[in-house]
Amino acid sequence: MGVDPKNSSLNPAKDNKSKVEELPENIFVPEEPKFSLDDIILPHKVKDEILDVATYAENSHLVFEIWGFKKTHKFSKRIGINLYGAPGTGKTMAAHAIAKNLGRKILVVNYADVESKYVGETPKNLRKVFDAGKNTNSILFFDEADAILSKRVTNMTQAVDVSVNQTRSVMLMLMNEYQDFIIFATNFIENFDPAFMRRISMHVKFELPDLECRRQLWKMYIPNELPNNINVDKLAEDYEGISGSDISNAMLNAAFKAARQNANALDELLVREAIENILASKAANSPKKIQRKEISEGEFLKATK
User: Fold this and answer.
1) How many Cβ atoms from other residues are within 10 Å of residue 68's Cβ?
2) Quick one: DSSP state of residue 305?
3) Lowest-pLDDT range, 69-73, 83-87, 219-223?
4) pTM of the prediction?
5) CB-based contacts of 115: which residues, under 8 Å, 6+ apart?
6) At 206, which helix (H) or strand (E)?
7) Partner residues linked to 192 by β-bridges
8) CA–CA separation, 266 and 263 (whole Å)
């Protein structure tokens, strides 16, 4: 008995088509912002730039209507903000705080949410993201944005390169058409394609906390109910080059260790041990630098004989 190729499960065209599953429409759902401007501790310069962004909506009528910028900047009512800098410095918290200050929900997008192994599907998913943002009047927030705003491939050698460039082109088009807030965050701004850099209105650099910020962060992450002998000022002075995320993790790790030891209070030594472990792991994760030893001409000649 013959087999109908149109109905056969061996038909590769039919199988491939069935594998390309559309993302459900409700995968891109906005949420209430988790943080406010009062929740984030940042150096004064960074906080001031964030306030400029956060007050954009309330000042837009003055700037565009009364001061006439709607005539000279017809397509600038959209605003793209890029928050960049070291990991753990508050970029994601700031994105939520901006949305909360604007009184709107935030739609958080990671590249994994839109990426598809099937050619042509990723651009379609991107369109769904922008449609969802528009239909729900929410703030679009692309976290780890370098994954999607990275440089386009110039020497295309395989189909995936074409797909990457297609995705970048669609993203550029969507950004041009979208007349609303878009927030990006990245640890690697150097990977951004220049075309995206030009279309982002503001770039805010997040830096590791200074002494005063570290002092405030240590205080913030020590609960009032916690019995302890922690000297916040000393910790802030002793540990430079750490992020707010490092301080948060150190406090929690130390607390769990104290609990395991049945301690009645959290000793500062446990906190220092926790932060030292974090610093050691970060150092191990950093690329090793090649050490070059300066030698004299005589030593060089001797070594090469």
Assistant:
1) 10
2) -
3) 69-73
4) 0.79
5) 122, 125
6) strand 202-206
7) 150
8) 7
Question: Do 31 and 106 contact (CB within 8 A), yes or no?
Answer: yes
Euclidean distance between CA atoms 94 and 249, whole angstroms? 19
Residue found under tokens 């009047």: 137
Domains, the chain: 22-206 (3.40.50.300), 211-283 (1.10.8.60)
Q: Which of 240, 237, 239, 273 is nearest to 255 (CA)?
A: 273
Q: Over pLDDT 70: what percentage of the chain?
A: 80
The residue count for the chain: 305
The two beta strands, 79-85 and 106-109, are: unpaired
8 A C-beta contact, residue 44 and residue 209: no
Count of CB atoms situated within 10 Å of the CB of 110: 14
Provide the b/e sequence for 213-228 (b: ≥16 CB within 10 Å): bbbbbbeebbeeeeeb
| Whole-number Å distance between alpha carbons of 132 and 25 | 9
* pLDDT tens digits, one per residue of 213-233: 999 999 999 999 999 999 999
**Closest alpha carbon to 250 in 36, 67, 88, 92:** 88
Residue 37 CB burial class (10 angstroms; 0-12, 13-18, ≥19): middle
Residue 192 three-state SS: strand
132: nearest Cα among 110, 156, 115, 108: 108
Q: Which two tokens stand for residue 125?
A: 């998913």
Check residue 219 and give its pLDDT.
Answer: 97
Could you give the C-alpha distances from 132 to 115, 123, 142, 285, in angstroms and in order?
17, 14, 13, 38
Helices 211-220 and 244-260 sit at what angle, rounded to 10 degrees? 40
